Amino acid sequence: MTLRLIATGGTFDKHYDEIRGELTFADCHLPEVIRRTRMTMPVNLETLPLLDSLDMQDADRQRILASCRAAAEPAIVIIHGTDTMRETAQVLGAAALNKTIVLTGAMVPYEIAGSDALFNFGFAAGVAQTLPAGVYVAMNGQVFAWDRVRKNRAAGVFETVSGS
Amino acid sequence: MTLRLIATGGTFDKHYDEIRGELTFADCHLPEVIRRTRMTMPVNLETLPLLDSLDMQDADRQRILASCRAAAEPAIVIIHGTDTMRETAQVLGAAALNKTIVLTGAMVPYEIAGSDALFNFGFAAGVAQTLPAGVYVAMNGQVFAWDRVRKNRAAGVFETVSGS
Amino acid sequence: MTLRLIATGGTFDKHYDEIRGELTFADCHLPEVIRRTRMTMPVNLETLPLLDSLDMQDADRQRILASCRAAAEPAIVIIHGTDTMRETAQVLGAAALNKTIVLTGAMVPYEIAGSDALFNFGFAAGVAQTLPAGVYVAMNGQVFAWDRVRKNRAAGVFETVSGS
Amino acid sequence: MTLRLIATGGTFDKHYDEIRGELTFADCHLPEVIRRTRMTMPVNLETLPLLDSLDMQDADRQRILASCRAAAEPAIVIIHGTDTMRETAQVLGAAALNKTIVLTGAMVPYEIAGSDALFNFGFAAGVAQTLPAGVYVAMNGQVFAWDRVRKNRAAGVFETVSGS
């Protein structure tokens, strides 16, 4: 088995730019993260443009969908901003690709003390191998179905919503 | 669903004792780790005596088995040293408890730069919720059946062995 | 000897607010930093309002000056934002207090990987004990006189300017 | 001014060997540490054999002395194990080299959470530029004269002893 990992940015991958004094994107952290996990399973990393998910447009979600569609691997983990993770999950879920696609991200950037990034990535990499085909959000140590999840922005956690 | 987490020590939980100048055990890191993960699923943490797994005796494995047997939760993650993780998995696997039990640990202690601990814990917490009942070792981003796994000590990775 | 430490905010003390998704101020990191240094010299920590130094007004600099004037200790380290460190140094320098006052800060926040905060604090704590009375900026591993320093914002480093 | 930095090992530079499961020496951390400090002053790094200072022999101390003697720089920082830092300081102090030589180290390795290494290095780099010629131990946020210092091993701190 091989895992496809698609990096799209989000808080997980934010980097502190010391000249501008703000969090932005530079090199993707995923190559370092993958080394650090000591994964022996092959991982194919695909780096899409790194975006704050609040800045994502329809075309960006279509590009993610196209990557998922083109992927040869049956298990895909997508690193994504939390603010519109649900919207991307809905685009992917509606496409019904017959692959296991797991979106995850982080509340605190990988490079900041106390980050949840590495835990979330581990969690997503695990359930991507064990869940049936479908689209899922994996955050806060839980698996959510793509059509029954929302981010509670005031609390900073994901929660289940009743399906339609 | 509630997750049971059983801490037994191992490299994951080693602490640097600055007076003695060596790695040993002090307070268990799991309470901090759990907070950091931002898990919203309830987690019941049970801390057994923290041991280097090379120092584990039969009685120690029987105590872990007793904890698994007594647990009300159907999903259990055990933090364990890597050197005899296989031996404990065999004790638990032979008991056939009808629960999902996942052993994990770390090659580098949680408190040392570049540690795989948080990734491994996330991975294990994910697959513990999604795998059928059984006993598994979750290391190196892979799930191993309890009776088909060994640690390759020279390479520092877990690998599959043919079942008997 | 006792060292006075005055925290005023700046990049050194920025904290990532995971709900708002931005760097801001919360609890001052200095109590933790002081424990971590294992300093055996007594340190009196005074925490002024934590500010981005670009937001500092004249009144804020006067408050820092008042703290320096009131301090019983002959050696003072001030943690300060880098963008207007020079301006505060000039206010303090012009007051000619007959104490050794050293301003320092960080280019990368203490809680972000690769931060220079702990190095800069150590450097400042050292030279505050060894320099004659006066006002200094200690950044980039160098001591600058208060009236001969500026921040090169494009390069992100402090440099000497010819005195007037 | 240029600073000479001599790495000799010690706790500061210990690395966790994940195959052997113990702290040992691998590549010296100082090149990374120097980059991280954003020092603009030139630093010449000389890496001697990295040793636990309990393993240092007379020949090792003579080699450190020879490096100090040969150094063109008037200010030298030596990274050294804490257990025999005093002994090396005495060898260097007796040689009366007319340079400012500052020994420092760490109680917790650089790569372990909560390390004092970066603070100590900053402190030493500061006082090496500001103290008169002589040999000093810089630990716990204090400067000690080479002939009036000892490590209190039970408490894990350096302290002043009366001179002879």
From TrEMBL, chains A, B, C, D:
InterPro entries membership: Asp/glu_Ase-like_sf, Asparaginase/glutaminase-like, Asparaginase/glutaminase_AS2, L-asparaginase_N, L-asparaginase_N_sf
Residue ranges annotated for the L-asparaginase N-terminal domain, each copy included: 4-155
UniProt-annotated binding residues for substrate: S53, T82, D83
Catalytic residues (positions): T11, T82
Classification via Gene3D superfamilies: L-asparaginase, N-terminal domain
Molecular-function GO term, any one: asparaginase activity
PANTHER family: 60 KDA LYSOPHOSPHOLIPASE, L-ASPARAGINASE
Protein name according to UniProt: L-asparaginase
Species per Swiss-Prot/TrEMBL record: Paucimonas lemoignei
